[in-house]
Specification:
Blueprint (H helix, E strand, L loop, with lengths): L1 H15 L5 E4 L2 E4 L2 E9 L2 E6 L5 E7 L11 E5 L6 E5 L10 H11 L3 E2 L2 E2 L1 H8 L6 H21 L3 E2 L4 E3 L12 E7 L9 E6 L4 E6 L3 E3 L2 E5 L2 E4 L4 E3 L17 H12 L7 H26 L4 E9 L5 E8 L21 E7 L5 E7 L5 E6 L2 E11 L2 H9 L6 E10 L2 E6 L2 E8 L6 E3 L5 H12 L14 H14 L3
Length: about 500
């Protein structure tokens, strides 16, 4: 402590030699040997007057009981006439524990609340009328947290042996006589050459690391000074104290080690099997987050999950129940590096109850011309399994998924006695035309005009059909194609 204040005094004398010099003599505040104001009182309360004593403020030195010894106090500045007050911190280079009155004046001078003319009433009143700095609330609140943690730690009756084993009367091990809760050790040498401790639980999971000075750890972007950081990135102060080992080092007498353990236990890190419990809890949280992500992706996808409807198979048999059909991958369902080889849009799954009352699941393939319908917001939405011509990209996609099935389920947008306009569930502009005389559908998008014209003429096989008279890229245009085909070609 003495060395600390000696260093401060040397620093202050160096700084002040280059600034205005303040001297207090028998209550007179002298700035460069000129009396500019008056001060009276003694620690912790001082009253400061202007030279003509027409204006005054009180400055009270405040601190929190049981704070670490090197923690600086703060000043409460108050106008007794109005009752208004506010707080300000000492800046370390302005503070001297041997001259509180002069330290206050230097602080006020540095903030322009005190000048060569004495108290700066205008600036002081502006400060007193501004928002509270909240220093006392913060410092007292922090101390209350520390005091509460100390009370909790006391109930554990902690001890450490020379091997670094940590004991507590609250240990909950299979053997009731086994009071171990964890271990602490000194890391030597630490990566930065400074003192470092590590605390682990009974399963050797690291619970916290303490750094004496300028400690750094991944996931935290500040230096750690007489602070510990826990596995979940919480940071707590734990004071260095070398008074426990006057002759020869023993871990059982290491006050710093005990400070670290008390801070941990007092803040809820009770060791024992905490690391394993945290791993399990983290796994549950990750699984919950993953499930939420899957749920969100599913809701935003074109896929159908467990929606009421029915399936008509290739034999014309109708079965009802919840339907699932996947048209696209849900990325959250596949871990990194895992390839998804699913052939999407080619299978529909139906859950139903058979004649024996048992719940069954049956899969139906698009290549068999299966139709299924679901109830969507009170309306029936239907899909048809269909092979198509005129889409080389779809064929390439089937080959990429190791499937030689060039069919898929397409949503029906228009239907009239076997004449259909369908659409790819993933691509709302990719239409398919279907006429009763063709087993396959005609894909009408992603082709050049010449290519589409050739495909349409071959598909429709109608001499009177004039390609240029129709729009093959819109639903309305395709419906007109079908209506004119029925009237002019289907004879």
């Amino acid at each position: 402590m003495k060395n600390y204040f000696l260093t401060l005094l040397i620093l202050l004398s160096t700084v002040f030699s280059f600034a205005q010099k303040i001297k207090i003599d028998k209550g007179e505040i002298k700035l460069d040997e000129k009396t500019v104001a008056y001060i009276e009182g003694k620690k912790p309360i001082f009253k400061i007057y202007n030279l003509d004593k027409s204006y005054s403020v009180t400055a009270e030195i405040k601190s929190v009981p049981n704070e670490p010894s090197l923690t600086l106090p703060w000043i409460e500045l108050k106008d007794e006439t109005t009752g208004k007050s506010n707080e300000l911190d000492f800046k370390s280079r302005k503070f001297s524990a041997f001259n509180y009155d002069r330290s206050i004046i230097y602080e006020l001078l540095d903030r322009n609340y005190f000048t060569a003319e004495g108290l700066n009433k205008q600036e002081i009143e502006k400060f007193l009328n501004s928002e509270s700095a909240g220093i006392s609330a913060k410092r007292l609140g922090v101390q209350n947290v520390i005091d509460q943690a100390n009370k909790i730690a006391d109930t554990y009756q902690l001890s450490i042996d020379d091997a670094g084993t940590i004991y507590s009367i609250k240990a909950q091990n299979q053997d009731p006589l086994d009071k171990r809760i964890g271990y602490i050790k000194v890391i030597s040498p630490a990566t930065n050459g400074e003192l470092q401790y590590e605390v682990v639980d009974l399963d050797n999971y690291r619970i916290a690391t303490w750094f004496a000075k300028a400690g750094m750890t991944s996931g935290y972007d500040k230096f750690l000074n007489q602070e510990l950081i826990t596995f979940d990135k919480k940071v707590y102060k734990a004071a260095f104290d070398n008074h426990g080992n006057p002759i020869g080092y023993k871990m059982s007498k290491d006050n710093t080690a005990m400070n670290i353990v008390r801070v941990l236990v007092g803040n809820g890190y009770t060791l024992q099997h905490q690391g394993m419990a945290e791993v399990q809890e983290r796994f549950v949280k990750q699984e919950r987050a993953s499930n939420e992500k899957i749920k969100t992706e599913r809701l935003n996808s074109a896929n159908i999950y467990e929606q009421n409807g029915y399936v008509i198979n290739e034999k014309g048999e109708k079965k009802s129940g919840p339907i699932t059909a996947e048209f696209e991958s849900i990325k959250a369902e596949y871990s990194s590096g895992t390839s998804d080889m699913t052939s999407y849009g080619k299978t529909v799954t139906l859950k139903f109850t058979n004649e024996k009352g048992r719940e069954k699941t049956e899969n139906f393939k698009s290549k068999n011309g299966v139709r299924f319908c679901i109830d969507k917001a009170g309306k029936e939405e239907c899909y048809l399994g269909l092979k198509i011509v005129g889409n080389t990209l779809a064929a390439a996609g089937s080959l990429n998924s190791l499937s030689f099935d060039f069919s898929g389920f397409y949503k029906i947008l228009y239907e009239d006695n076997g004449y259909l306009v369908l659409v790819d569930p993933l691509l709302p502009s990719d239409f398919i035309l279907k006429i009763p005389t063709q087993e396959k559908g005609l894909y009408t998008n992603k082709s050049t005009s010449d290519k589409l014209k050739k495909n349409a003429i071959e598909y429709l096989k109608c001499d009177s059909f004039v390609f240029e008279n129709y729009d093959f890229k819109t639903l309305e245009g395709l419906i007109k194609v079908l209506e004119d085909y029925k009237n002019n070609c289907n004879k």
